[in-house]
């Protein structure tokens, strides 16, 4: 369930830009950190990526040796993921399964406790009432399993317009949990305190959280990557800010990691 119906091409066109590259790199680092802290080195994990989009994280984890299931409702995003998978070696293709389906229907596709790790990145903003979706994700997690959520930070909605000099929009953003994203869609954001309570309520309490895109959220969608040395500095600055107060609290995105009790 990507929420990208009608705008998938626009999203895919920006995959190689700086904003998406920072997002994927930071989430990968943070996710790997949490996986390493919870599971033995070398264990082949059962991973579910709900609303996997083009499959960046799903493919990366399959390449790392894990058994990955990707669930995606948008046909164009699913085609993109399948095309990427087709170019992988046979061993990786065998470890990855792609399913067309809605993230709110995990109970239709999977038994309780089927996965060690469940990802749900960039999905909640397209769901008006996310609690049932989150409960379904927790249901398919095995005891001790890791739930990884990437959400828009409602407590920082004024940052993007404010740092861009649009102070009218910044003032309006203080009093809302909704915004118009760069795809032109009206979507919602989440607050850390609310998600913390929700995760506790579904028996997957918050274990760790990070900020993603503290400094680069206002970069244009078509901004190209800098050279390797400068890109490494961008990653280092974003990585440090994403795990350091008060910076992480004003990040555009929040990466929350819950653990199934």
Sum this structure up briefly:
39% of the residues lie in helices and 21% in strands. It is of the alpha/beta class and 261 residues long. The strands form 2 sheets. Strands 3-2-1-4-5-9-8 form a 7-stranded mixed β-sheet, sandwiched between helices.
Q: In words, what does this structure look like?
A:
There is one protein chain. The protein is built from 11 helices and 9 strands. The strands form 2 sheets. A 7-stranded mixed β-sheet has the order 3-2-1-4-5-9-8, with helices on both faces. A two-stranded antiparallel ribbon has the order 6-7. 39% of the residues lie in helices and 21% in strands. The mean pLDDT is 94. By secondary structure, the chain is α/β, with parallel strands linked by helices. It is globular and about 50 Å long.
Number of DSSP helices?
A: 11
Biggest sheet, open or closed, and with what strands and sense?
Answer: 7 strands, mixed
Rg calc = 18 Å
In the predicted model, the low-confidence regions spanning at least 5 consecutive residues are none
| Alpha-beta classification | alpha/beta
The H/E string reads HHEHEHHEHEHEHHEEHEHE
Helix fraction bin: 25-40%
Estimate the global geometry from the Cα principal axes: globular
The beta-strand count equals 9
Please state roughly what percent of the residues sit in beta strands, choosing from under 5%, 5-15%, 15-25%, 25-35%, 35-45% or over 45%: 15-25%
**Strand arrangement in the largest pleated sheet:** 3-2-1-4-5-9-8
Give the termini distance in whole angstroms. Answer: 26 Å
Q: How much is the average pLDDT? A: 94
């Amino acid at each position: 369930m990507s929420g990208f119906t009608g705008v998938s091409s626009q999203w895919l066109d920006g995959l190689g830009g700086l904003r998406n590259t920072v997002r994927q790199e930071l989430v990968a680092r943070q996710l790997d950190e949490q996986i390493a802290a919870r599971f033995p080195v070398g264990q082949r994990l059962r991973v579910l990526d709900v609303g996997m989009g083009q499959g960046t994280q799903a493919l990366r984890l399959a390449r790392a040796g894990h058994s990955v299931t990707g669930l995606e409702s948008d046909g164009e995003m699913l085609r993109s993921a399948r095309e990427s998978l087709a170019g992988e070696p046979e061993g990786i293709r065998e470890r990855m399964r792609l399913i067309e389906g809605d993230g709110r229907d995990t109970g239709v596709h999977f038994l309780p406790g089927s996965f060690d790790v469940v990802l749900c990145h960039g999905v909640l903003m397209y769901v008006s009432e996310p609690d049932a979706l989150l409960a379904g994700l927790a249901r398919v997690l095995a005891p001790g399993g890791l739930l990884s959520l990437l959400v828009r930070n409602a407590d920082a909605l004024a940052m993007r317009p404010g740092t861009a000099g649009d102070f009218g929009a910044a003032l309006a953003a203080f009093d809302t949990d909704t915004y118009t994203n760069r795809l032109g869609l009206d979507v919602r954001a989440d607050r850390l305190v609310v998600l913390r309570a929700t995760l506790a309520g579904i028996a997957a309490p918050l274990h760790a959280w990070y900020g993603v895109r503290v400094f680069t959220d206002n970069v244009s969608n078509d901004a190209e990557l800098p050279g390797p040395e400068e890109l490494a500095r961008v990653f280092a600055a974003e990585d440090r800010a994403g795990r350091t107060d008060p910076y992480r609290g004003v990040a555009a995105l929040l990466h929350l990691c819950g653990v199934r009790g």
